[in-house]
Every structure is written in structure tokens, then in C-alpha cells.
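ok trying again, last paste got cut off:
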Amino acid sequence: MAQRLRKLGGRLHLLQGSPNTVIAVDVGRVVVVDPGIGDGRDGAVVEAVRGLVGGPVGEAYVVLTHGHTDHLAAAPGVVEALGARVYAPRLCLGLVESTVLRRLAVYGGTVSEALAAMPMVSLRVDEAYIGGAALPLGARALALPGHTPGSSAVVFEEDKVVAAGDAVLGERVLARFGVPFAADLRGWAESLERLRELAEAGYTLVPGHGPVTRGKRAVSMIEANIAAAERVKSYVLEKLRERGALTLDRLAYMATVELGSAEPSPRQVLLNRTALASVLAWLEEEGKAEPVITEEGPVWRPRQS
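nice, full thing came through this time. structure:
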């Protein structure tokens, strides 16, 4: 365990993983940001907390950046072991507390546990927070909608560290999957601009999936994410103009094959379908694409001038 625990400075430590977990300890009080997922992950988090506290754990809190399974699956075990209270973004409340709502938001419909490839874990939330809200141990919430409607960062001002969740992704993750997952890819790109301000101010950036960075390296990572969103948008418009009209399902398959390096799978195509639906809405709002009905269902085409 000690080999996986890294000091971020001040009161903060990183328990590495995918996603990363930030642990803040101050006089027996503990905040765990995004406990994560995986066999034994809850035990690893609890062990790390107890080792850092070095005595009885007083007040304990689990703070979620958003309501996806990979960030919260280990939380029930952590909550039970530490008696922790759970904080989650208000607009992710349903995703955290209901596996049905979570699958609807992620896949556009209810899918099986096998297809989702993640455990159907739910969690009761004690405190729903909004952007700008004060969080335990002097942290604050920064609203970064896009990945989910309530996606947020947990900003530790005293330590100049921002736990960004999936509002930003490491470059290897971007390259592997090609299409960054977001319920609203336009909102995700806009939120990255707000995150860039913190990076430029010298905050250490802890992404959910990717390396911890700061300074120019953190700014570079954020810019790579913004470029990825613009690349997907340009790709969609180019394909619509090239093919004349495409269904969302066909577009999702093409993007999965052509933009990423990962082997296409039903799960990945469904994830990309959700993100690409938001891109089509983005293009429609800009007057560049429009839906029409055909015998095969709705298709999208370039907007006729």
C-alpha cells in the first residue's frame, strides 16, 4: 500500500489508480475524494486513511466529483469502515443513488450489468453540493459540467491542489478511446477553460484518469483535452458532409473505429453514441447540422443553406 500512496504536499496524499483517489487528513479528520473501483479498493483506501491518521479516525467524508460507477464503487466499504458522510454534486444525485438512472445517462438506456462491465453499486448521499459550495477541510466545489451535468472539481485552496475527476483526462486515455466520454461534449470543452485558469495559477492538477501535473505540463494536458473535443466535432461535421446523411448509430461505430486505438466493443460504441449525440446537438445549435426522418429512423445531415 505504501508504494501506491504519494504525498501531494501539505495535508494531501494520492492513492493512485484509475481513477485516482485524493485523501486529505487534518487532525484526525479525513476527506476521501473519489474512492474508485476494483477488488480490494475499499480496503486499500481504509488502510491508507488509518495509516495517515495514525490513530482513531474522527470525522470522515467521501466526496464524489460525479456519479459514475468507477468513481464510487469502493465508497460503500469506505463509508461503512470509517462512518463517513457522502457528498455528491446535486446534479449527480440521481446517478449516485440509482443504478438505473446512471445507465440511462451513460448508455442512453438500461443495459445489463455484463454489458456495462461495472458493478451495479449505489450509494446514499448525505449532502448534495453545488458549484462554489464549501466542502469539508476547507475545500470548495468548482462546477465543471460536461462529463456529467453535475461534474465538479474539489479544490483544496490551502494546498493548491485540484481533484478534477473526469473533467480532464490524461493524453494516453484520450489517444486510446478517441472520443472523450461526455454527456455534453460542448459543456466539457467549456469547463476545461475554467480548469485552465487554475492550472495557470499554479495549482496541481489531479485528473481522474492520468498523471498528476502542474504548471505548463498541466496547461498542456488541458489544451490536449480541448483539442480532442474540437477534433471530434470536426470529424462529425466532415463525415456528414462526406456521406450526406448518417444515423447516430452508424456515426458512433465509425468514430469508434477511426478515432481511437482501442478495439471496438459494444460497450465502447454505446459510450461514444452518448457523447456524439451531444456533438450533433452542438452542431445543430450552430446551424451546421439537422435531423430528418427516414424509413430507417432519424438521420443527421449537413444543414441545408
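cool. DSSP finds eleven helices and 13 strands in the chain. The mean pLDDT is 95.
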